[in-house]
């Protein structure tokens, strides 16, 4: 049985980070030889995989409410003489495997992120097992060595995991416990997979890792390679127009990587670089290993080598011990650096992490208010960045049809979703995967409207938050 003649239907739902999205694709790849093809939705599936996230409390609560709904579906299928395999994968499976089987005994499989290559064997074991089949060890063999080559095309923009796990142990974070210690895939494996993705139609690849810029590997003749060198290699792949990488840690932003942003045209002028806080005291309590000024310096250097670079970040409001002055320091850092996009979260205590048992927890109402203040400032900066793009021309990668008739969807160099009308002379056919020049006509809260300029030469890049600040 091959992937082209599916007998059984598989539905995968992903929460959490982009690595879970990538992993979901790899789970589909590994199940294809067993006869599983994509289902339209949960209702017509023979197997459902919930790929979960444990990063904040709300993320894992979602799993249990979803499981409650699926139980009804599973029972109905069984009463009709059918069968529905329910699997829980991802970081909640890793952290709370026992709790899942206790609270939801109807779950058939529980597997952590390091066990996906074992899925076929686990599926085979279900009928023999009396309870759920569980795999939450960190297997000695590396899962990447045992996963098949990716078979499911991802489209024009693709993810490629190059690094997994984390040894940084930030006070608040579950990732080192759910994903295990840092591991880098080999340069050869990454280049091979990137070529394969391009052959399947990818024009933009985002390299993924919990600490992607900690990636290191062996190049030809045993020379040590870092991410900067790997990016240079990937930029050589014909047809690969754009490269990105995420998520990075400020501590691993080495000089070569900063310089790469000025030297590799395919490397897009957008970088997600989480800082979490602008207070040195809180950064130390978080075990981040850098100060606020280190972050400011990295931003300066990036703006120097790539003046049109736009920065993005993550912030946590109300980490234990955070005073009003610490919070103000975060607002100050946001004002100094200016972000094109950012994510901010209320501190959420996670079982097993040091911050969860710290005595100086911040009151809920205070956390709420601080989060609102951070978000208001970030929102203003995002709006200002998007507005500054209006009237300028930029390269757009067309990713497919837009939501409305006659519309295309695409992406700007700064990761903004873009949409515009297909011009009659171009038509939508053949447009997907093309890089076109477009003028930005309007900025909406989370996207840009553009007008195609055909194949004219690229215009100047949009004003970045940095340039806008300098002009003010
Ligand atoms: N590896 C990345 C981030 C991984 S988690 C880094 O080092 O920055 C994604 C984001 O979730 C984090 O950047 C952080 O802002 C947020 N986060 C993680 N744990 C959290 C917690 N306990 N409460 C609130 N936000 C959290
Ligand atoms: Fe979590 Fe910190 Fe590791 Fe990022 S660097 S994954 S925040 S422990
Ligand atoms: Fe969530 Fe695990 Fe990613 S906790 S953010 S799915 S690494």
Give a description of the structure.
There is one protein chain. By secondary structure, the chain is of the alpha/beta class. The chain has helices at residues 18-31, 57-79, 90-103, 119-125, 143-146, 175-178, 187-199, 227-234, 255-263, 280-285, 292-305, 324-337, 364-389, 465-471; strands at 8-14, 36-38, 47-52, 85-89, 109-111, 133-135, 157-161, 163-164, 183-184, 204-208, 216-218, 224-226, 242-246, 270-272, 310-317, 341-346, 393-401, 407-411, 417-421, 435-443, 448-452. A six-stranded parallel β-sheet has the order 2-1-3-4-5-6, sandwiched between helices. Strands 17-18-19-21-20 form a five-stranded mixed β-barrel. Helix 1 (18-31) links the parallel strand 1 (8-14) and strand 2. The longest helix is centred in the C-terminal third of the chain and has 26 residues, at 364-389. The model is unreliable at 455-465 (pLDDT under 50). Residues 55-56, 172-173, 175, 210-211, 247, 249, 274, 276, 314, 316, 345, 347-348, 350 line the site of S-adenosyl-L-homocysteine. GO terms for molecular function: tRNA-2-methylthio-N(6)-dimethylallyladenosine(37) synthase activity.
In short:
The protein is an alpha/beta fold.
């Amino acid at each position: 049985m091959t992937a082209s003649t599916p007998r059984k239907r598989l539905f995968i739902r992903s929460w959490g980070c982009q690595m879970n999205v990538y992993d979901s694709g790899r789970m589909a790849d590994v199940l294809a030889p067993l006869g599983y093809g994509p289902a339209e939705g949960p209702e017509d599936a023979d197997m459902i995989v919930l790929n979960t996230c444990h990063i904040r409390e709300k993320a894992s609560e979602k799993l249990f409410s979803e499981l409650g709904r699926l139980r009804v579906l599973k029972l109905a299928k069984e009463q009709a003489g059918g069968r529905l395999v329910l699997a829980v994968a991802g970081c909640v499976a890793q952290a709370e495997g026992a709790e899942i089987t206790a609270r939801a005994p109807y779950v058939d499989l529980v597997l952590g992120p390091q066990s996906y290559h074992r899925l076929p064997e686990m599926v085979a074991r279900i009928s023999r097992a009396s309870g759920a089949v569980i795999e939450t060890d960190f297997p000695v063999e590396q899962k990447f060595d045992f996963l098949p080559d990716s078979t499911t095309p991802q489209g024009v923009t693709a993810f490629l995991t190059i690094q997994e796990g984390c040894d940084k142990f930030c006070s608040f974070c579950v990732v080192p416990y759910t994903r295990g210690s840092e591991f880098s895939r080999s340069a050869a494996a990454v280049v091979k997979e990137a070529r394969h993705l391009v052959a399947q139609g990818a024009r933009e690849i985002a390299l993924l890792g919990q600490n992607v810029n900690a990636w290191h590997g062996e190049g030809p003749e045993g020379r040590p390679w870092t991410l900067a060198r790997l990016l240079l290699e990937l930029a050589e792949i014909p047809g690969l127009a754009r490269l990105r990488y995420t998520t990075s840690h400020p501590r691993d932003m080495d000089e070569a990587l900063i310089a790469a942003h000025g030297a590799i045209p395919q490397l897009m002028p957008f970088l997600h670089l989480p800082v979490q806080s602008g207070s040195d005291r809180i950064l130390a309590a978080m075990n981040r290993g850098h100060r606020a000024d280190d972050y400011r310096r990295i931003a300066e250097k990036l703006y120097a080598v790539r003046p049109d670079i736009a920065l993005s970040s993550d912030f946590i409001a109300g980490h234990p011990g955070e005073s009003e002055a610490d919070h103000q320091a975060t607002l100050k850092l946001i004002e100094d650096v200016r972000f094109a996009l950012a994510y901010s979260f209320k501190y959420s205590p996670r079982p097993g992490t040091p911050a969860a048992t710290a005595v100086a927890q911040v009151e809920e109402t205070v956390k709420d208010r601080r989060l609102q203040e951070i978000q208001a400032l970030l929102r203003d900066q995002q709006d200002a960045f998007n507005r500054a793009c209006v009237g300028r021309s930029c390269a757009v990668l067309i990713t497919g049809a837009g939501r409305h008739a006659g519309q295309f969807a695409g992406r700007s160099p700064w990761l903004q979703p873009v949409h515009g009308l297909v011009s009659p002379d171009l038509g939508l056919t053949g447009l997907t995967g093309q890089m076109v020049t477009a003028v930005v006509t309007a900025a909406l809260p989370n996207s840009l409207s553009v007008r195609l300029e055909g194949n004219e030469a690229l215009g100047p890049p949009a004003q970045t938050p940095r340039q806008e600040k300098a002009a003010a």
